[in-house]
Structure formats: structure tokens, C-alpha cells
Write a structure and sequence with these properties.
Elements: E1 3-5, E2 18-19, H1 20-27, H2 31-41, E3 47-48, E4 54-56, H3 58-72, H4 77-90, E5 102-104, H5 110-125, H6 129-142, H7 145-165, H8 171-190, E6 201-205, H9 213-224, E7 229-233, H10 238-248, E8 252-256, H11 260-266, H12 269-272, H13 274-279, E9 283-287, H14 289-293, H15 297-300, E10 304-305, H16 310-321
Parallel strand pairs: 6-7, 6-8, 8-9, 9-10
Antiparallel strand pairs: 1-5, 2-4, 3-4
Helix pairs in contact: 3-4, 5-6, 5-7, 7-8, 7-9, 8-9
């Protein structure tokens, strides 16, 4: 799913989600002008992340587009902003017509993505985490968190893993770099917008499966898209998963396996959750490298194969649950 619907009737319209780069492209107002308006007119009053980066809501975008339309008609900036505030005071809702109906999450161009990837890999391999923080901050100023999570983090994890496999970096460096990204993904997972009122999605690695990168990425994106997430992480025993599932009654359980050995561990999940296997509630979804490398595994495991990419998986989850 490449878009999050955003109409004026949604409570999420006031949730600060979009960085200044995305808002600048949508409104066709330069980032320098957005900053200048905030200094001179206290408009718009963007929220700030813990790192000091501006975040705007859908409502902010609509108000900015309304002001720009007035300026394009010949009104002075200060007059347009005063007119907007008068509209607020009088309770008019004309500005809602200028709110975008949908905001794209895949706007950053490919060369910029590759540049961020390369710089981040270099900083992590050199164990320069101050530089890595700076690079992530610059990336967030140019694109959305969703773009960063989906288009920058996965290839960086892959390159670092390949560097370790080819003995270009040590195990210690690989663990340090991976844990840096893991911490950021967990942070994004717990700091998303208010979730919708549905039971959570449980995310778990297969028993003896310790590779959780793809599960973390999926959890971070699901949380950004307002799903409640119960993240169990690495190597979850099936008896424990069954007890947890019965206790919290989730809307969906997503299982990840990367190898044949760990996928084999999942084949017997209906023995531990026979009522789920019979009723198909909650939905059991699965994914991971082995199901792509050996497609026959897609049919050996009970449940729904989510897809070969994160985008396919997110589309599948969205269709199943909505």
C-alpha cells in the first residue's frame, strides 16, 4: 500500500506525520519559505521530533495550500494568513477542500536513496554513530519515515550482512551495526501515531529463528500505518505463542522464517492452535526468505503467504484486515 488515506473527516488529520521535505513537495512551497513563515507569522506551528525536525499534519498541509492559493491570487502573505485565522474564528471549513486526499510515501528519488544507503553503511561499518544519526536526520528531512524504513534500512541491513558473510567486517561490527538499526526500528515501532481500535497484530519469529530484521521493518511500518502491534521478536516457541494468542485474541499473527530448518518448525503450529486452524481466526500469515527462494514452501505451511516484498506483504495484510 503506497498511500494512507487522509480526508478531513478523520481524527488523524491533526496527527503530525509528514516532514518538511514531503510537505514542501505537496504544497509547492519551498522549505526556506515554510521556515520563514513559522518565524515571522507563527504559521504553521509545526510539531517537533525529539531531534528537532518539523512534522506537519494533513490539516497543516490543507491550511498551507489554502494560503498559497490566496497568495497566487495576489494577496500578500500576511493578509492571507490573517484571512485564514479569521476563517478559523468564524468556524468556516473552506480550507478543508485544500487538504490532500492522499499523501504519497514513495517520493524520494532512487539516486538519493542509494546515496543515503551508501553513507549509512559507511558510517555504521566505521562505527561512527554520530555520523549515522546525522545521516538519518538528513534522510528524514528529505523523505518520510515510511520511505526511510522501506527503501533505505532493508538494503543497508543486507549490505552489512553480506559484508560479515564475506569476512569484510567482524562479527562484533556486524552486531553493533545491526543493533543500531534495530534500536531505531523499535523506536519507530513504539512512537507511531495513535492506533486504530482493532486487536493487535502479533509478530513473531519461528522457533530457533534469530534473524528479525524483516520482522522489525514490518512492525515499524504497520505501527506507522496505525495498526496495534504486539512484537514478540526472535525465536518464539510455539507453545508460548499459542498461550499468548489465546490470551490477547489478536486480529492476526505473522510468523517469519528464513531457512528450511526454521520453516519446518512452523509446520506444526496447528497442533498448538487447533481452534485457530479450524476457524481461521485469528488470521495466520507468514513470510521470509525461504518462501521466496523455494516457493514450494508457500504451500507447505498452513496460513496465508504474505508476499515476496514488503509492499506485497503490507497490501496483503491491509486487504485481510480491512
Amino acid at each position: 500500500m503506497n498511500y494512507i488515506p487522509a480526508t478531513s473527516s478523520q481524527t488523524g488529520d491533526v496527527e503530525p506525520l509528514y516532514n518538511i521535505g514531503v510537505v514542501s513537495r505537496i504544497t509547492e512551497i519551498s522549505m526556506a519559505t515554510l521556515r520563514a513563515w513559522e518565524r515571522r507569522y507563527n504559521f504553521p506551528l509545526a510539531k517537533r521530533t525529539s531531534g528537532g525536525h518539523r512534522l506537519y499534519s494533513v490539516r497543516d498541509v490543507g491550511r498551507l495550500r489554502w494560503v498559497k492559493a490566496r497568495i497566487d491570487e495576489g494577496m500578500h502573505t500576511s493578509q492571507a494568513i490573517r484571512a485564514l485565522r479569521h476563517q478559523d474564528e468564524s468556524g468556516q471549513a473552506v480550507v478543508d477542500l485544500f487538504a490532500p486526499k492522499e499523501i504519497p510515501f514513495s517520493e524520494i528519488n532512487k539516486p538519493a536513496q542509494v546515496q543515503f544507503q551508501d553513507l549509512l553503511v559507511k558510517a555504521l561499518i566505521q562505527r561512527d554513530f554520530t555520523k549515522a544519526d546525522q545521516i538519518l536526520g538528513e534522510a528524514l528531512a528529505a523523505t518520510s519515515p515510511e520511505d526511510l524504513i522501506l527503501n533505505v534500512i532493508p538494503p543497508v541491513l543486507s549490505v552489512i550482512g553480506e559484508a560479515w558473510e564475506n569476512k569484510r567486517i567482524s562479527v562484533a561490527t556486524e552486531h553493533l551495526a545491526t543493533n543500531y538499526l534495530r534500536q531505531r526500528l523499535l523506536m519507530w515501532m513504539v512512537s507511531g501515531p495513535p492506533p486504530i481500535s482493532k486487536p493487535p497484530i502479533v509478530l513473531a519469529c519461528a522457533p530457533n529463528e534469530w534473524h528479525e530484521g524483516s520482522l522489525l521493518i514490518l512492525g515499524a511500518i504497520l505501527r506507522r500505518r496505525r495498526w496495534q502491534v504486539a512484537y514478540l521478536g526472535q525465536a518464539v516457541p510455539l507453545p508460548d505463542l499459542a498461550t499468548f494468542t489465546r490470551d490477547i485474541k489478536p486480529s492476526m499473527v505473522i510468523l517469519v522464517a528464513m531457512t528450511e530448518e526454521t520453516a519446518e518448525e512452523l509446520v506444526d503450529w496447528p497442533q498448538w492452535l487447533p481452534e485457530v486452524a479450524q476457524s481461521n481466526r485469528p488470521i495466520i500469515g507468514f513470510g521470509g526468505r525461504i518462501f521466496i527462494q523455494k516457493p514450494e514452501w508457500q504451500h507447505r505451511l498452513p496460513g496465508v503467504f504474505l508476499g515476496s516484498t514488503f509492499h506485497e506483504g503490507l497490501d496483503t495484510i491491509d486487504k485481510l484486515l480491512r
